[in-house]
Amino acid sequence: MILWLALAFVLMLIWQAWEQDHNPQPQVAVGQQAEEKKSPSTSQEVPSVPTAEPKPAAASLTSGDRIRVRTDVLDLEIDTIGGDLRRLDLPAYPVSIEQPDVPLRLMADDGGRLFVQQGGLLPADKQSRAVDHHARFVAEQAEYRLEDGEDQLEVRLRWAGDEGLKVEKVYLFRRGSYAFDVRYEIENHTDREWRGHLYRQLQRIPPVENKSIFAMHTYTGGVISGIDPASGEELRYEKVGFEEMAETPVDRDMKGGWEAMIQHYFLVAVIPNQEEINHFYSKRVADSRYVLGMVTKEPLVVAPGESGQSGYVVYAGPKLKNDLESLAPHLELTVDYGYLTIIANPIFWLLHKIHAVVGNWGWSIIILTIIIKLLFFPLSAASYRSMANMRKLAPRLKSIKERYADDKEGYQRAMMDLYKREKINPLGGCLPILVQIPVFIALYWVLLESVELRQAPWIGWIKDLSIKDPYFVLPIIMGATMFAQYKLNPQPPDPVQAKIMLYMPFVFTVFFLFFPSGLVLYWVVNNVLSIAQQWYITHKMEKGS
Prior knowledge:
The chain has about 550 residues and is of the alpha+beta class. The protein has helices at about 1-20, 30-40, 240-245, 320-325, 340-360, 360-375, 375-405, 410-420, 430-450, 475-490, 495-510, 515-545; strands spanning about 65-70, 75-80, 85-95, 100-105, 115-125, 135-140, 145, 150-160, 165-175, 180-190, 195-205, 220-225, 235-240, 250-260, 265-270, 275-285, 290-295, 300, 305-320. A hairpin with a 4-residue loop joins strand 1 and strand 2.
């Protein structure tokens, strides 16, 4: 039982890696990009709405002037073509420990790393003008900075179009926030009504994936959430992979909700007004770029001589659960713990509370492990007592096996009779593993998905708990503790099973060489505590007998 449960978990990880290896995301080569620039695509990269005439997509994004914006947590560039968000760096999150002064670049429009956020206004009738992401804007400054003592920074771009229709795209940034507002302000100085639909979209080329079987694979792609306005059914969290955006495009109406493109530790999300109904869509453009967007169902109407506005919120930054929870319903699910979210959420909450006291994620993991062991102490104690009883019976089981060497049915009956006389449950020793496996998998995802542990040091050589131990010290200790547990456990009467159980510590050591060191630290501490508890109970029972 223990063997199959352990192997099932390992096979699950191998299967996930195999899926990544044999279903790679489409990549764009440098030569292909050059070819695309020569041959414009006929695909549409803006949504179709009634009476709207979206422009055809160019094979590469056109650029105008760049406007640089710096806050205390963001460093980004806005292009005057469409007022698009074209580049975004995160100064608080270096690309690596070795390059502490180089911020992680979350969004860009250069080469194969294209990842931008676009938006615009589509006409709802033939008399209204479009101000989409191909429109040209102008700004008063080429650079904006959130100065000391300021809590907000506003960046205004003015549409350089029809003099009778004034449109400004306004970005509003706040100190300490990865979320910012984007709104369109329309003034209608013409003699006819203006009607238009607001659309917002994310456009991206899939990033290059690490195809190593030992790499920690997490989901990279689109996600949507919202409420079906007809049925009231809530779509909490649905993944939309890059290929799926083209093969089975998103095509549905939803109230509120949000759309996002996520990756390991980080995301960019677009959040509309939660009372607004939008049509969500997806598509592939120029053969290598994927679009996930939404457009308002009801048009914004601005009468002659009147003004109006419409907007949305963008979050571009780390997957911080508390920040995401406050922005939109279910946005925190982008911190994806999989099917064991119900277990992972309280584990993360407790880990976060412990860290608030001790200030070190490594020690927090150790304290969390001790708490988990204490919670399951009664169950574990009962299981270890059962295993100790099984250990006592080992010589008698061996004798029965020798006596019934050629009679399997007789051997099974004699063995079960012995268990019945001694009042021993042979499966009782499996309970610690049964309890530990879901907790272990849930903690695996907590440590893998929590950006708080990214580049978080513990002690000495462990400078980043989210990556493997550089000197493999923890995996080797983990293997030694597994071997010690093997010695403490009753040996299977079947010599083949005994050999397999003997090899398991070595097999797991190889796999754990490439696991995040935070996860291996948990497993080491858990094994040490289990060995101490099992030795104490076994010693006490043997002394009592």
